[in-house]
Amino acid sequence: MRLAKNKRGFSTDFIADFFSFLSFILILILFFVIFSSTVKISGCQGPGIRVSMVGEANNELNEEMMLLNYLRTNVSVNNEQMSIAELIAYSYLDNNYDELEEKTKEIFGQIDNQIYTTDKCSAVCIDVGNSRVKEIKTEGCEGAIIEQYCQEIKTTIPLFYTQPVKTAVVSLSYNVASERVIRGAEGSNRI
Amino acid sequence: MKSKKAQLGLTVNIGAIIWRLIYILIIVITIRVVVMHFIAVNIDVREAEGKILINRFIYSPDCISYANNEIGMVYPGIIDLQKFSQKTLENCVYYGERNDYAAANLTLHFLDKGGEITVIYNQLGYDVWLPRVNMAGPGGAKAFYDSRYVLVRDNNNLRRAVLDIEVITPNY
Q1: Cα–Cα distance list, A181 to A79, A112, A136, A175, A176 (Å)
Q2: Rounded distance, CA A51 to CA A42, Å?
Q3: Between residues B21 and A186, which one has the greater pLDDT?
Q4: How confident is the model at residue A78, as a pLDDT?
């Protein structure tokens, strides 16, 4: 107060206030930087917080179900009914994957045409031991750029008729190259 | 009678106080804005609830999934055509006599021979809320969609199908 009683004191006060205001702004910026990253890490997004972790788990469940159902799907090969899992075993024995590739493209083509307006890019990979024996990419993959595929959703199946019985790891990446656009639900909320 | 020097000192002092008051006001407003920014008063969890409802339909042993009662095993992803009915849905997910919580439309599109079957969960709620989808505020409703590749058990045959699910929840 003593300083405020002359012009020199007033200017000192003003400088002190100015710097305290500046440091307050810096603290605010620091606060936003720290808390923004913390909120993102904890699985929430921005002020309109969304429960994104539920969504991620749900997508994984969907893809696991799709892989299981793909392997269970019955197909007709040379007038004989068998599941895709059995066809994989036959194809491995014969070292001929043409039939498997054709049936896989047919199955995913039908699914995509029912759910989406166009073919989507999906990939099925079959690994035996440490080597990849077959990669099948669907029609929608032509001209598409796929950065990562066949890495997350996997299941192990026995290769029947091999002695001793070997196992194959089948992995699926569904709709990996493009945005999902749902048929008949434009502008709505796709879960 | 104060001197001119004393009057000048008082003027300067009031100026500094006003400046500081403005400064404190800015700080108070800023703190309030920051707190309001990080405190979520309303969290919309309807999307998560919709997903949970869909998963209950698909994964529950008492719902539409095929279950082998002899070994007590449920096959999620395989729909039992005999259980695919409104009655089954109403029994497996029960929200009281008057369901103000959610309604759903489940449609099976068969991929092998074509054709489709539709069942509605909470018919009354569905009829009331469907025209109000995307209307904001109380009285409006929000719809969520999901599609899954499923196998349908029809007289010991496994048929390929896509299950389209539409869940509608009212705004509160």
Answers
A1: 37, 11, 23, 11, 13
A2: 10
A3: B21
A4: 87
Is residue B74 within 8 Å of residue A78, measured between CB atoms? no
| Amino acid identity for residue B113 in this structure | K
Helical H segments across chain B, by residue range: 4-38, 46-59, 86-92, 123-129
Round the CA-based radius of gyration of chain A to a whole number and report it: 29
Report yes or no: B126 and B103 within 8 Å, Cβ to Cβ: yes
% pLDDT > 90, chain B: 44
Tokens of B86: 């409104």
Chosen for mutation from B147, B152, B171 (greatest number of chain A CBs closer than 10 Å) is B147
Q: Is A166 left (phi over 0), alpha (psi -120 to 50) or beta?
A: beta
Helix (H, G, I), strand (E, B) or coil at A99: helix
Is this structure's pTM higher than 0.90? no
Please tell me which of the candidates B19, B54, B151 has its beta carbon nearest to residue A72: B151
In one letter, which amino acid is A147? E
Q: Tens digits of per-residue pLDDT, A88-141?
A: 999 999 999 999 999 999 999 888 888 887 788 888 999 998 899 999 988 888
For the residues of A33-90, what is the DSSP string, one character each? HHHHHHHHHTT--SSS---HHHHHHHHHHHHHHHHHHHHH-EEEETTEEEEHHHHHHH
Residue from A148, A122, A147 nearest A137 by CA: A122
Nearest CA in chain A to B164: A115
Contact A49, B43 (CB under 8 A): yes
CA dist B40 and B44 (Å) reads 10
E strand or H helix that includes residue B67? strand B65-68
For B38, nearest residue in chain A (alpha carbons): A47
CB contact under 8 A, A115 and B147: yes
Token output for A48: 């309109």
For residue B119, the surrounding DSSP H or E stretch is strand B116-121
**CB neighbourhood size of A65 (10 A):** 19
